[in-house]
Amino acid sequence: MLEHSDEGYGDDDDAENTNSRCSTEATDEDIIEELDTKDTGDAQLDNTHVPWIRLDREVYFYAGHKINIVEAMDSHGGVIWPAALALCNYLETNTDVIDLKGKQVLELGSGTGLVSIVASLLGAQVTATDLPDVLSNLRYNLLRNTRGRSKYTPEVTALSWGSEVERTYPRSVYRYDYVLAADVVYHHDLEELLVTMKYFCRPGNTLIWANKVRLKTNLVFTEDFKNTFNTTLLAEMGEVKIFKATCKR
Ligand SMILES: C[S@@+](CC[C@H](N)C(=O)[O-])C[C@H]1O[C@@H](n2cnc3c(N)ncnc32)[C@H](O)[C@@H]1O
Q1: 81 CB less than 6 Å from ligand 1?
Q2: Whole-structure pTM over 0.90, yes or no?
């Protein structure tokens, strides 16, 4: 599924240029306007809207499309993690179990955006979320790979885990059929993540959580997760487990 592209994004000159050219935040319209003037297939990527030092470009094939992902240094969300690949694989090969066509989908901790891109290519109306610092690269990858291919234009927005979500995403306005999360459990405070999962997992919708098991804390979280929701283990792909959860009434 992965084709490695060696375009030398990591050298110092590129890094300096990237940082200086990204002093102002681009809007969706700016990015779309730029993409309008470019070939969205194999064209050389432009790093105008990527504020970090680039590491590399990765090429994947999912849902019948070639997907170019720009990775970046300096945050956990800048690179693709194993659970994202496993979840993309699961989603594209199990549309009979999880049919995303026309569904409202929220992704937590989207990182580079691969999972949201695949969900969008599979027909979902996607909202990809992450911490503010990660959004520029996420937005770039999402628009770059779904424009002209997806029925619904995906949204990219900030969402920090914790009780604040009740204020920023009021229940009266936001409702999702599926909540997706890949490799969101690693070395950080997991209480806020569980609070957020609980907030978005409501009667009638489904949470899909994929994670590579790394640390003892992962196992503790998995136990808390199982105690909090009705859970089913959908798949095990190597060290990655994919769970389906619904809320306990
Ligand atoms: C290990 S990365 C996984 C990225 C992506 N899902 C993947 O699998 O490739 C974890 C992601 O969670 C995000 N994250 C970490 N803490 C967060 C928080 N408190 N609120 C929102 N997102 C957070 C990070 O920015 C990062 O994008």
Answers
A1: yes
A2: no
